[in-house]
Design brief:
α2 packs across α3. By secondary structure, this protein is mostly helical. 54% of the residues lie in helices and 0% in strands.
């Protein structure tokens, strides 16, 4: 069953947004490193999925870079 649509950020999304507000544009790897520095040991793929959902919600913009 799909989750109901909610345009409001979840607590996990708020953590990522706070990092982005402080640092400005950042890569997933940057965010993972900062979360780990705060004691949050989320996997790279988990943070990437979270940020993908945030982009779909229009909470952040994605800019492809590199590969």
């Amino acid at each position: 069953m799909a989750r109901p649509k909610n345009d409001q950020p979840t607590p996990a999304e708020l953590e990522v947004l706070k990092i982005l507000w402080d640092r400005g544009p950042s890569t997933v790897r940057d965010v993972v490193g900062l979360l780990q520095g705060q004691g949050d040991n989320r996997a790279y793929t988990s943070v990437m999925s979270l940020m993908n959902v945030m982009a779909e919600k229009k909470l952040l913009k994605r800019r492809p870079e590199g590969r």
